[in-house]
Amino acid sequence: MGRAPCCEKVGMKKGRWTAEEDQILTDYIQSNGEGSWRSLPKNAGLKRCGKSCRLRWINYLRSDLKRGNITPQEDDLIVKLHSTFGSRWSIIASNLPGRTDNEIKNYWNSHLSRKLHGNFRKPTVTDVVENAPLPPKRKPGRTSRSAMKPKFIPTSKNPKSLIKANKNEIVLPTTIIEINGDKEDALMDLSSSSVVSGAKEPGLGPCGYGDDGHCNPSINGDLCINDDIFDACFLLNEPDAVHVSSFESNNVENSEPYGSSSASAGHENIESMADDFIDWDLVWREGETLWDEKEDLDSVLSWLFQGDEKESESRQKDSNDFGEPLDFEQENKMAAWLLS
DNA sequence: AAGTATCTCAACCGCTGTGCG
DNA sequence: TCGCACAGCGGTTGAGATACT
Questions:
Q1: A5 CB neighbours strand C below 7 A
Q2: Full set of structural domains in chain A with CATH
Q3: Per the database record, which ranges form the Myb-like domain (predicted)?
Q4: How confident is the model at residue A115, as a pLDDT?
Q5: What phi and psi, each to the nearest 5 degrees, are found at residue A209?
């Protein structure tokens, strides 16, 4: 039996929305709130699919939307974000207040992609991206962070064995990446970064699993790596330089990368991993209450693009798991490496 | 002025993960 | 454990607007 359509197609209106329909939808949502999109058209008296109502509201009718042209600052930010996150329009949009993913996607397709393909521009990160092997494409569908509440986590003894996570626990698998064969530098660069480790909260940052399978920074110095930053690693023009050593920190040399179908002792080439496709959204699992996606992403962005001096100062006082001061010169090198 | 090409962007489509019975 | 409904995502379409010949 095939799946039922999202709404009854017969009798449903399609195409442009009229001002009257907009008013009906706006009035209904202001009275009843968002949600229950499937039943909304019937309750509101609209001959529209629930999906269509949702899209119309989110992309056009919401009061917090910013109208007008994309500013040069926004333009610049979109380019930078796209170079890091690719076509993850919802992530990009979340950092442009008042802009929707659809709007940004359209803007990119109609303005920026063409602009960046012209002959007059300076080389950008996009050049690097285009010359590099394609990163594994994000699978379509609903995979937003907020929707990806952690449900199960691997145990330390067996990563394939899953136990249920508590709501307020930080749950991060461990991945080590090796850059140009220099694991130590890579670890230092990445683990010292709040971008990668999300070290704004106690318990985040260089970490490992305790016997209970939960993140425990005291166990070892391995790092937690943001999947999006890892995605960015795929965008390098020297993909062979990046290797994944391990998923499970307790047995670095002999365990296999998370999501890889083939067991691999030691290093796994990034390109073969791309063939297997690893959904890094799933690799990155966060606790519900301690982790603030927006806040963390803001941290990522300030670090990558603006250089948040205040945060940098506060982190200057930080130290790694071994009590050594963090090396921010190397962190800056990492930023330059990602953006160059 | 008319015909054609190109561009823009609102809306649609198909797919997938989550939640729940 | 399974199957369904729902929500949300990225990709694509196509009507209307604008530019060009």
A1: no
A2: 19-61 (1.10.10), 72-131 (1.10.10.60), 152-339 (no CATH)
A3: 9-61, 62-112
A4: 62
A5: -100, 140
Nucleic acid strand B: bases within 7 A of protein CB:
7-19
Going from the C-alpha of A183 to that of each of A50, A125, A187, A244, A327, the distances in angstroms are 51, 24, 6, 10, 15
State how far the alpha carbon of A263 is from the alpha carbons of A231, A271, A288, in Å: 21, 15, 32
3-state secondary structure A112-151: HHHHHHCCCCCCCHHHHHHHCCCCCCCCCCCCCCCCCCCC
Residue nearest to nucleotide C7 (CA to C1'): A142
The token pair that represents A177 in the structure block = 């990446």
A292 CA to B8 C1' distance (Å): 36
- String of DSSP letters for A281-294: HHH----TTT--HH
Higher-pLDDT residue of A328 and A241 is A328
Q: Is the CB of A15 under 7 A from strand C?
A: yes
The whole-number average pLDDT for the span A276-299 is 37
Say how far apart CA A125 and CA A140 lie, in whole Å: 24
Which residues are within 8 A (CB) of A92 and not within 5 positions of it... i.e. 6 or more apart? A78, A81, A82, A85, A101, A104
Calpha distance A300→A236 (Å, rounded): 18
Residue A91 contacts strand C, CB under 7 A: yes
- The Å distance, CA of A16 to C1' of B14, is 20
> pTM value?
0.49
Surface-to-core class of residue A282, CB atoms within 10 Å of its CB (0-12 exposed, 13-18 middle, 19+ buried): middle
